[in-house]
């Protein structure tokens, strides 16, 4: 929320003569249907009153809803790997994708990046529950999401269609969480954000998937009965179909 | 070919899962077991979260047991009194098992408990079956018929609350069947199995039920326990995925029927030897995962307890 406010303030504060940014996304909702296997959205933008590529950086960030998570560390106990220490994090996103014109460390100093939450290393939990040093656990959470394709940092992946027109392709894999996502586009010059835009993106299940998910959570008893009934029915049908003519 | 599973929240190749259901169903039809002990680890290997795998495999077991039980019912080979008494313990065991499952999940020890229970159960059952089938194969070759050593039933006869089980021609205490039912119910919730590979030997060697009613009665017991566990898992852990269940069951019931036909052509000792090897391979695989250094010692789960 804080970041959105900062972005909004910047937009208002930008002087009329300065470079400015206009951006949009190819679709503002992603529907998870039964054959959903992940999709790409395209974030595009234009720089108004462009003043040359020298010293300019563009960063596109797509951030998923916050997801509370527990990271556990296994240790060997009597020869068996057992979960021992744990850390709970709140305020880390379920999805984070970053595209930029060059590695973000070259675009702006670390402190600026941290303030805007730009880059995987800037992802900091809002609340930590742990008896241990949380840093290795945080690194593990980032690693885990990178492995499942939910966190990614992709420098140099912004295509320029002309001097001022650019686009970035953002993969949204199958394992994404439902909820409100935010697409943020930042324009940097000289290591400072001079313009930024934020657009919401909604990821939701539709049709049967949504109904089944809702039913599993709102009417779990009948959902369970439905599963049992289906299993018994299929078992019965198969025994009738395959019964050998006596 | 990809299908989105609404509860597991991931996309899977549905053909692969139908084939998996069919393969496990084939083996379960051939060996006369529910197949839960194979299905749960295989689902975990394909990337399904283990909570969903455990809770959803139960439906597969319900379905394959259903078609077996109907066949036994037509032969009037089911002792419903015995099944009812065992179920008394089964319900209590299931409730306990699901409670333990939820508690372990909060502690982050669910995977460990599931894997440990599997390794212990599969390891011991596999070794027992292997020795038994090798001994009877040897006996068969040398032309000797071995008479099974009878387990001393003294302590069971001494227990109170006796009851008559007409179909099984037994007059025994209700305590052992209830206890067996409880253990199987609890294991069913933790391991996602029907428990046939425990009930059947227990009925034969502990309760001394006549073998002709053992199959049908155990299947009825398994249907009831897996049905109750499915509903409990759905209400307390939200871990049952109906789409996944549908895929597994569709493949499973077809595979089971084919398996029964193939099994009829093989001899009992050979079947048990094959099954013993299968059980030991799965057990060894799970054991290896427990003791091998994991690729990443950190693991992540959604939610904070």
Mean pLDDT of chain B: 82
Beta-strand residue percentage of chain B: 5-15%
Q: Could you tell me the radius of gyration of chain B in angstroms?
A: 19 Å
Give the uncertain stretches of chain A in residue-range form.
Answer: none
Helical content of chain B stands at over 70%
| Widest beta sheet: strand line-up of chain B | 1-2
Structural class of chain B: mainly alpha
Taking the sheet with the most strands of chain B, its summary is:
2 strands, antiparallel
- The ordered H/E elements of chain A are HEEEEEEEHHEHEEEEEHH
Total of helices of chain B: 11
Describe the structure.
- The complex is a heterodimer of chains A (246) and B (305).
- Helix content of chain A is 28%, strand content 40%.
- Chain A is an alpha+beta fold and 246 residues long.
- In chain A, helix 5 packs across helix 6 (220-241).
- In chain A, 35% of the residues are buried.
- The two termini of chain B are 36 Å apart.
- Helix content of chain B is 72%, strand content 7%.
- With 305 residues, chain B is mainly alpha-helical.
- The model of chain B is unreliable at 146-151 (pLDDT under 50).
- In chain B, a hairpin with a 4-residue loop joins strand 1 and strand 2.
- Chain B is globular and about 55 Å long.
- Chain B contains eleven helices and five strands; from the N terminus they run ββααααααββαααααβ.
- The longest helix of chain B is centred in the middle third of the chain and has 32 residues, at 110-141.
- The chains are: A alpha+beta (246), B mainly alpha (305).
- At the A-B interface, strand 5, strand 6, helix 4, helix 5 and helix 6 of A face strand 1, helix 3, helix 5, helix 9 and helix 10 of B.
- Strand 5 (69-77) of chain A pairs antiparallel with strand 5 (298-302) of chain B, so a sheet runs across the interface.
Q: What is the compact description of this entry?
A:
The complex is a heterodimer of chains A (246) and B (305). With 246 residues, chain A is an alpha+beta fold. Chain A has helices at residues 2-13, 104-107, 110-116, 135-147, 207-218, 220-241; strands at residues 20-25, 29-32, 39-48, 56-63, 69-77, 80-90, 96-100, 127-130, 151-155, 158-160, 165-172, 179-189, 192-205.
């Amino acid at each position: 929320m804080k970041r959105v406010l900062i972005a909004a303030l910047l937009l208002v504060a930008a002087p009329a003569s300065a470079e400015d940014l206009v951006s949009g996304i190819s679709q503002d909702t992603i529907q998870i249907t039964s054959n959903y296997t992940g999709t790409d959205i395209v974030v595009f933008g234009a720089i108004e009153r462009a003043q040359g590529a020298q010293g300019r950086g563009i960063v596109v960030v797509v951030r998923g809803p916050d997801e509370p998570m527990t990271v556990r560390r296994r240790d060997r106990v009597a020869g068996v790997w057992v979960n021992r220490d744990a850390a709970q994090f709140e305020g880390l996103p379920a999805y984070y994708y970053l595209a930029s014109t060059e590695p973000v460390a070259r675009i702006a100093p670390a402190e600026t990046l941290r303030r805007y939450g730009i880059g995987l290393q800037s992802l900091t939990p809002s609340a930590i529950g742990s008896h241990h040093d949380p840093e290795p656990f945080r690194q593990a959470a980032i690693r885990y999401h990178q492995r499942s394709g939910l966190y990614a940092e992709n420098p140099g992946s912004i295509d320029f269609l002309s001097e001022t027109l650019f686009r970035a392709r953002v993969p949204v894999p199958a394992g994404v969480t439902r909820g409100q996502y935010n697409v943020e586009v930042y324009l940097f010059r000289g290591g400072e954000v001079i313009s930024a835009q934020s657009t919401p993106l909604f990821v939701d299940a539709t049709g049967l998937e949504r109904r089944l998910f809702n039913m599993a959570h709102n009417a779990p008893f009948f959902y369970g009965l439905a599963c049992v009934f289906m299993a018994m029915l299929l078992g019965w049908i198969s025994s009738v179909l395959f019964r050998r003519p006596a | 070919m990809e299908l989105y599973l609404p509860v597991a929240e991931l996309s899977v190749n549905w053909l692969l899962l139908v084939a998996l259901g069919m393969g496990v169903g084939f083996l379960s039809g051939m060996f006369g077991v529910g197949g839960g002990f194979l299905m749960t680890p295989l689902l975990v290997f394909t990337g399904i979260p283990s909570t969903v795998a455990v809770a959803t495999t139960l439906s597969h077991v319900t379905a394959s047991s259903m078609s077996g039980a109907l066949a036994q019912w037509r032969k009037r080979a089911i002792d419903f009194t015995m099944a009812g008494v065992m179920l008394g313990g089964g319900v209590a065991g299931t409730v306990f098992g699901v409670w333990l499952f939820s508690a372990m999940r909060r502690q982050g020890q669910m995977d460990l408990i599931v894997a440990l229970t599997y390794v212990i159960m599969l390891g011991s059952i596999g070794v027992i079956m292997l020795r038994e089938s090798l001994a009877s194969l040897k006996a068969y070759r040398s032309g000797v018929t071995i008479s099974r050593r009878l387990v001393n039933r003294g302590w069971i006869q001494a227990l109170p609350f006796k009851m008559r089980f007409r179909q099984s021609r037994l007059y025994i205490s209700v305590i052992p069947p209830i206890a067996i039912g409880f253990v199987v119910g609890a294991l069913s919730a933790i391991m996602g199995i029907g428990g046939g590979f425990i009930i059947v030997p227990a009925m034969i060697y502990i309760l001394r039920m006549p073998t002709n009613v053992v199959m049908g009665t155990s299947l009825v017991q398994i249907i009831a326990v897996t049905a109750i566990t499915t509903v409990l898992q759905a209400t307390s852990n939200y871990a049952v995925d109906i789409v996944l269940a549908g895929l597994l069951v569709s493949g499973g019931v077809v595979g089971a029927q084919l398996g029964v036909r193939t099994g009829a052509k093989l001899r009992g000792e050979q079947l048990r030897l094959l099954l013993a090897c299968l059980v030991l391979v799965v057990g060894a695989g799970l054991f290896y995962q427990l003791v091998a250094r994991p690729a990443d010692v950190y693991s992540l789960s959604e939610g904070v307890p």
